[in-house]
User: Fold this.
Amino acid sequence: MTFKNPIFCAIDTTDVTRAQMLAHALAGSVGGLKLGLEYFNACGHEGYRAVAESGAPIFLDLKLHDIPNTVAGGIRAVLPLKPAIVNVHASGGKAMMQAAAKAASEAGSERPLVIGVTVLTSLDQHDLAATGIASTPRDQVRRLAALAAESGLDGVVCGSHEIEVLRQDLGAGFKLIVPGIRPAGSAINDQKRVMTPQEALALGADILVIGRPITEANDPLAAARGISTSLAA
Ligand code: C5P
Assistant:
């Protein structure tokens, strides 16, 4: 699946009217929209459909993590919504990821991409050690991304500082979805390490997740268009 533009705008809200307004404004100027736990848990399938009506491809960011049978069931339950991308935690293991990929394939030609979440960027080495993982976050990301590829997933979510090594490890076809992207000069908010859209694409990112620099701009459409234009230049 290819998208007309690499920007997926994260819509993090519990308000259907606001999400729908943003979706309709942005649909023609971004590659897609990302809906996560906050929106989906508050607004459910009906809220999803209100956003999907805009025609934009949707990345349904639910980060599933459970036993294989339950994750497969969770994926099947959202297939009628026809998301373009869904995701699971790679730390759920190979059998779980294989079950997720198999469940997604039941949608045939409308199969969503299934993406693995490696190590949450909110976790540092100390946090990993506290969960019994002695590796550095970078080594753990590489290990989980390789396991995701081996399990038949289409790609992973990764931090901008991991794009280069994962592209080398896993080759050209493996999708790298990257949050923590900030156009030059925009507010960093609570992100710790950020990169510009141009830098991330040059290193090999496929999809850039950008939220607040677009959604909190006075004119979200102008902000999205500005980023798209800067990429085309
Ligand atoms: O507003 P901002 O551009 O920071 O939004 C980024 C989006 O990507 C949010 O939906 C956030 O939850 C998500 N995300 C992230 N960092 C990760 C994984 C996901 O910012 N490591």
